[in-house]
Amino acid sequence: MDRTVQLTAPAVPRTVVYEPDIATHPLHVRAARVLEDNWRGSSTVPSRGLYPHQWSWDSAFIAIGLRHLSPLRAQTELETLLDAQWGDGRIPHIVFNPSVPLDAYFPSPDFWRSSTAGRAAGAPRTVQTSGIVQPPVHALAAWLVHRADPGLSRSRSFLARVYPRLAAWHRYLLHRRDLGGGGLASVVHPWEQGMDNSPSWDLPLSRVTPAPARSFRRADLAHGAPEDRPTDLDYGRYVRLATDYRDAEYADGHGEFAVEDPSFNALLIASEHALARIARELGAPGTARHARAERLTTALVERLWDPAEGMFFCRDVRDGGLIRERGVSGLIPLLLPGLPRETAAALVRTASGPHFGLGSTTRLVPSYDLLGEAFDPHRYWRGPAWFNTSWLVERGLRTHGQHERADALREAALDIAGSSGFAEYVDPYTGEACGATGFSWTAALTLDLLHAESTHDESMHNEPMHDESMHDTGHVTQARGGKRG
């Protein structure tokens, strides 16, 4: 194992026209077609069959890619999601399309009953949503979308309109969800963290009595192989948790499941830094938000870091202990520039070591420990590689000066995205497609990596998060070489 790691600190979309060799690149054309096929007029579905509604963190990643095709459409993607925000600040993990039949997806709107069960929490009355949340990538996405076309963003007051909503979203997580009392946000359902079926959930889920199998129908099995999906036992526990949360009118702090997750909190910290940049763009100081992000980074290390294992682990809030399962979530904090140098160095060693094999036995980052008892190269989040987590790790490697490793990961992601038909996830060893194909965030993040590769633009990855001078966005537009159309 390499232990030598050197660290350094809408109706007519507005289209961005890039240099011909980029815009006509076959991978660009194919990825753009996926996003066009999955566009529904004001938002993008993750896939046309399995996921026929709008998903929260999907839309954030999708917007990051859409900014290379149409900054207006990228802004609209985020605005549509934020229009479904609840009064208490939460952004729901699903915004339901009323034209989709109820039996097309479970849990459906009649399960969540957001407008009635969520009334006390301020659920919207004009749109049906779920009652749980997903990782807070949204402020980071909003900032990157703004930078793609600052002139358009300013003319539409994009940041001025989304900033208060994003600030309310973060307040909800930092106050209502600090269930462990240590400053970090907790998730109250595995679906909230986004890595639904991770072995990290097995211990806290073991306390949950599953809902009877006859009480729900799994629509996901009509679109994916049963051996690739969560088991019926795990799914029954997911349904039980969601039912109990709904029946408690979506009040936080009372359920059997509460976990502090490193990836969820790392994305919250990254988005806090992004909110600071947005505040400065709007003429307000961002120092308080940067300071909060640094405090959260300290809490993340104090509560979830295990120096002996070189990993961040989840913490079970209900019993207070770390859950010592090596999931990709424990590598995602690498994207934070405020990490201690020795912590970042250890994460790089862990990613490239035998448990994840990045750059040796695997080309993309597996979702779970290759040596773990629960490892399965095809089963949902128990081993397969996902493109969004590899995009985050690539960003983290570049943040900490690991450019050769980042370049190799970017090249692998582009190659496998194309060869797999923009799969939802893939076998980490072979790159074999699993789940849905034509998956939106895979296509979107392919575009982002492709454009970064084509222009050799490192500024979007390596920008110091606490540099108060970075409000000037003009140099980024120039570096990308794009022409605004």
From TrEMBL:
Alphabetical GO biological process terms: oligosaccharide metabolic process; protein N-linked glycosylation
InterPro entries noted in UniProt: 6-hairpin_glycosidase_sf (IPR008928), 6hp_glycosidase-like_sf (IPR012341), Glycoside_hydrolase_63 (IPR004888), MGH1-like_GH (IPR054491)
Pfam family, one: MGH1-like_GH
Gene Ontology MF terms in the entry: Glc3Man9GlcNAc2 oligosaccharide glucosidase activity
SUPFAM superfamilies linked to this entry: Six-hairpin glycosidases
Region (Disordered): 455-485
Domain of life the protein comes from: Bacteria
Compositionally biased spans, kind Basic and acidic residues: 455-474
Keywords: Glycosidase, Hydrolase
Residues annotated as domain Mannosylglycerate hydrolase MGH1-like glycoside hydrolase: 51-442
Family: Belongs to the glycosyl hydrolase 63 family.
Protein name: Mannosylglycerate hydrolase MGH1-like glycoside hydrolase domain-containing protein
Organism: Streptomyces lincolnensis
